[in-house]
Amino acid sequence: xxxxxxxxxxxxxxxxxxxxxxxxxxxxxxxxxxxxxxxxxxxxxxxxxxxxxxxxxxxxxxxxxxxxxxxxxxxxxxxxxxxxxxxxxxxxxxxxxxxxxxxxxxxxxxxxxxxxxxxxxxxxxxxxxxxxxxxxxxxxxxxxxxxxxxxxxxxxxxxxxxxxxxxxxxxxxxxxxxxxxxxxxxxxxxxxxxxxxxxxxxxxxxxxxxxxxxxxxxxxxxxxxxxxxxxxxxxxxxxxxxxxxxxxxxxxxxxxxxxxxxxxxxxxxxxxxxxxxxxxxxxxxxxxxxxxxxxxxxxxxxxxxxxxxxxxxxxxxxxxxxxxxxxxxxxxxxxxxxxxxxxxxxxxxxxxxxxxxxxxxxxxxxxxxxxxxxxxxxxxxxxxxxxxxxxxxxxxxxxxxxxxxxxxxxxxxxxxxxxxxxxxxxxxxxxxxxxxxxxxxxxxxxxxxxxxxxxxxxxxxxxxxxxxxxxxxxxxxxxxxxxxxxxxxxxxxxxxxxxxxxxxxxxxxxxxxxxxxxxxxxxx
Length: 524
Description:
Elements (H helix, E strand, L loop, with lengths): L3 E6 L4 H11 L4 E7 L3 H14 L3 E5 L5 H8 L4 E4 L7 H4 L1 H21 L7 E7 L12 E2 L12 H14 L6 E6 L2 E2 L3 H4 L14 E3 L1 E2 H17 L9 E5 L6 E3 H10 L5 H4 L14 E2 L2 H8 L7 H9 L2 H6 L6 H9 L9 H5 L5 H8 L2 H7 L19 H7 L26 H10 L3 E2 L13 E4 L5 E4 L1 H7 L14 H4 L4 H7 L23
Parallel strand pairs: 1-2, 1-4, 2-3, 4-5, 5-7, 6-13, 7-11, 8-10
Antiparallel strand pairs: 9-12, 14-15, 15-16
């Protein structure tokens, strides 16, 4: 059987390396990787060539350069785009994130369009849960089509949001966008001990984790399934959520508890409740993560607990248990020094130029002060401390079968309809729910990919496919696609946003975060 050619970007990263490894190990594909020229990647290239020989091609280049993308795509049958500049690097270097995450994705997409085999090349874009923005226990469940309210200062999510819109509207015959949840990988604990980003997880945020290995299996099953003809045509030209299902549904607090539990500690031993942000994060429980699993069968390969058991079996973490008697010392020497990092809330509190971050992540200094440093006065959702929500209620809430229709966000039309039944009335209804209107007088029933004309409440006119607007959560590319961020104002006019936004914001707030708001923490 002739081998297909798989291009993987981000092969040095957690998901990309697993996709490449697991798919290449089948012996059924030839691999191509596009790597930045740096010592670590040169070392990786030698390792890959030693393992796979002539079955792998190494290209050193830059995604932000169109000619490098054209070269990488030239002979590809599949383009698996995992490469991304993620937080905390994207927080400190947003221009680098824009070059890789947005421009790079556009370059790959456009390189495919210009290829003579464009209608045969299949493009897999890895999106992110960060596109959805903040969630709390009021609306823990989310699905594709929910509003995309990127959290302020999250330039990573901004670039991924823009990239996804470009791909969906590109006209490619074969594309898919997979919105990856938080991903657990073997260096997860240590990688998060060098930047104030570790304080950016809200204690009560709902998280449905994925793991690097299960995501690699997802990628392998996608490629091999398509090659074998078992992946149906209907799979393509859609957006999906990647999460590992019920067993991976926890909270921010639970995640810290799992990590610190490897040394016999708990969050209360090492943190204070006011060290972490209170809002403006992301992650949620995916109501529809089983949709992707039904195609690619990956969720049960490594559960949330499997991951922590695996990590705990490693020699370093067996030694880490020796730190149990020295928990206060560990907090003082490993965690508290990060207060001086510009990505830390404690840093913001002592630097006036960071006042907008305090507003974004806490509401105000007054709201921050209400949190306090005493765990006895802090209500942890997963421990049953939220008024009216017992621990039993919390556990029951993680099960999809307990989710009723009214617990899900509205998309502004009858979203139970199949694509073939979507008509002009659905488009009108969706536009109205977004505070705007449909300008096109005709929409062909069942044609969700041909662009039509819309107008937002500010009068911005734009063209977009019904699929993009009704099925994926995107709206106006001018005022609703940060940066800048103006959601306090937008939510007053867009019911689609308001149904979620006011879980954590008040109608009296009037914050505006300009496109260059990142400059407050970027070193001069």
